[in-house]
């Protein structure tokens, strides 16, 4: 995310660009078509800054580094997924979630459960002692 914070005038200016999907105070979301076009133009030899200027972006508003950063990220996506990488939502698709532990034998499960019970019992005893100490302190204050 950029360190640049856009004001209302800049947001309206950016949103008026047909290559922009939407704008917040801190980020610009570009249309998939623009991303694909920009990557293809970049592969054909155009520089990132030139591409952004030709498509109506003011570098004083978005920052001079933004074109390079965007094209670097978009080229990676394009090389990995092709045009579909910009047209489909990929967030969360590759995530396998929390790693599951291997299948435990009955004995291992029992041992694990017993260890957990022992831990919880010790925690309960500690909390009981703490509660008693807090009661004693509050009685002494009265």
Helicity level = 55-70%
Proportion of beta-strand residues: under 5%
- Structural class, by secondary structure, is mainly alpha
End-to-end span in angstroms?
Answer: 56 Å
Rough shape?
A: elongated
Taking all residues together, what is the mean pLDDT? 90
Question: Which stretches are poorly predicted, pLDDT < 50 over at least 5 residues?
Answer: none
- What order do the strands of the largest sheet run in, or round the barrel if closed? 1-2
What is the count of helical runs?
Answer: 7
Q: What is the count of β-strands?
A: 2
Total domain modules: 2
Q: Main beta sheet, described?
A: 2 strands, antiparallel
Cα gyration radius (Å)? 28 Å
What's the order of the H and E elements?
HEEHHHHHH
Summarize the helices and strands and which ones pair or pack.
Blueprint: H1 8-15, E1 20-23, E2 28-30, H2 32-43, H3 48-54, H4 59-62, H5 66-81, H6 84-87, H7 106-141
Antiparallel strand pairs: 1-2
Helix pairs in contact: 2-5, 3-5
């Amino acid at each position: 995310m950029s360190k640049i914070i856009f004001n209302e005038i800049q947001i309206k200016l950016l949103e008026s660009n047909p290559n922009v999907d939407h704008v917040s105070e801190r980020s610009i979301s570009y249309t998939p078509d623009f991303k694909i076009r920009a990557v293809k133009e970049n592969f054909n030899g155009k520089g990132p800054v030139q591409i952004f200027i030709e498509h109506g972006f003011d570098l004083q508003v978005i920052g001079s580094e933004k074109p390079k950063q965007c094209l670097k990220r978009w080229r990676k996506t394009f090389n990995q997924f092709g045009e579909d990488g910009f047209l489909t939502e990929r967030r969360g698709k590759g995530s396998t979630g929390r790693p599951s532990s291997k299948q435990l034998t009955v004995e291992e499960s029992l041992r694990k459960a017993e260890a957990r019970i022992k831990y919880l019992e010790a925690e309960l005893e500690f909390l009981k002692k703490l509660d008693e100490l807090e009661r004693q302190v509050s009685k002494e204050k009265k």
